[in-house]
Amino acid sequence: MTTNIDDLIDDILLCVISFLPPKDAARTSILCRRWRYLYGRCPSIAFDQRNFGGDGEFRTKIFLNIISSTLLFYKGESLEQFKLVFNANATYKLSKCPTYFDSFLRTAREKNVRSICLEMSYASSTVLHDKTNKPNTEDEYCLPSYIFKCASLQRLILKDCTLGTIGTPSLQNLAVLHLIRVEGSKQSIQELITNCISLRELAVEGCPLLAKLQISLLKLETLSVRCCHQMKSLRISAPNLFSLNFEADLFNKLDFNLLKPEELRCVRLCLCQQKEYINGIFFELPKPPSSLTRAKEFTKFAMELQNTKNLSLASSSFEDFAIEELLQFAPLQLHNVKHLSLKGWIGSRKAILGVSILLALMPSIESLILEFTENTTEKPQDSTVTDEEPIDFPSIDCLNYTLKRITLRKFVGDEAELILLKHILQHAAFLDEVCIGWGKEKHVNLEDINELKNSKSIKIIDE
């Protein structure tokens, strides 16, 4: 028995059409009489200007008119998703399009849209790296306030958008909110987040002028705050928070307060680089304070993460953690961490000591991931690290009692990496397996690594 595609019910056909690019989806209307109006009921509408062959003024007008026609003839009772990627350019700026954009968003709201994704950037990628090319305020488009009063909206993704006066948002059903490189007043961003009482996932990224943020959300489970390099105060009250991804300069008196959520299990921390370009604005971070001050600041931060079991820490160089005062001020603050991931440059004696101190602060580690990166700081690399220069390793309890598995990534086997690995292999009493993912130019092989271990029960394998 054969089944013809026309025998399928409309809901299945609409689902199939929703996976097609807009051009191909529109072409299905000429297949036969039954398919003529199916496209007009497709629950997902997505338009990406990059797929329309150019961003000149003529092409841009055609692109906007196609969207207008599609929404005008839309016959569905509700809209599942509306996605728009628009790249402005020197000849056709965002400020020329408010009538189009207002019409698109108003229609989406009238159709009880559940998901909106807007990306309104400039075609030249240099805007992100050169402040001389940053668009003027009068060339931007401010999102209308009524989009923040859409009761049916459950997912809102804004990239490279500008918030105007948003009034009092009414997004009681919104569960996912991503604000990526969003501009606007600090009050508008804070007010938007505060009034989304049903949020479960929140991401705030690339908002460099945002200095203070207070998050008090009962249902929030996942939070990401990245590339907000002027952040001086972050206060989080989220009892159901499960995952936190936070990028900041932890050593420069950050006012960080986390109302200890019982469910928090996964934390990823990233130390800022010394210099950053964000949206054309150049930031040079202040010089690190004294080691004593840095130890106290990190201790205060660690106290907020006492329930964390999965911790991921990325840094341009782990020399930043070579602070012996940490062992005095932060004993056992991270004693619940079971799985630790470290990513950064470990190419000097000081960096090796920094990694060792971090391991000493976490006595319950069962699995460890070390990802080695190149030195991206302006500090000169210490190429004199050798076995003849002994490093005063601190006492690392996890090596004696809990560590069972190690994964190495981008491992090449230079002197610093081998010294650290040798110390771990010779002192890890319960280690079962070391899994190695090699870098581009490796200096050793598995046989060389096997010679470093004391116990024959440790397996050394390729990842």
Structure overview:
23% of the residues lie in helices and 25% in strands. It has 463 residues and is α/β, with parallel strands linked by helices. The strands form 4 sheets. A 15-stranded parallel β-sheet has the order 1-2-3-5-7-8-10-12-14-17-18-19-20-21-22. Strands 9-11-13 form a 3-stranded parallel β-sheet. Helix 10 (415-427) links the parallel strand 20 (405-411) and strand 21. The longest helix has 16 residues, at 57-72. Residues 87-435 form the At1g61320/AtMIF1 LRR domain. InterPro entries: At1g61320/At1g61330-like, F-box-like_dom_sf, F-box_dom, LRR_At1g61320_AtMIF1, LRR_dom_sf. Pfam families: F-box, LRR_At1g61320_AtMIF1.
Task: Please give a handful of descriptors for the protein shown.
Leucine-rich repeat, LRR (right-handed beta-alpha superhelix), alpha/beta, 463 residues, F-box_dom, F-box-like_dom_sf, LRR_At1g61320_AtMIF1, 11 helices, three-stranded parallel β-sheet
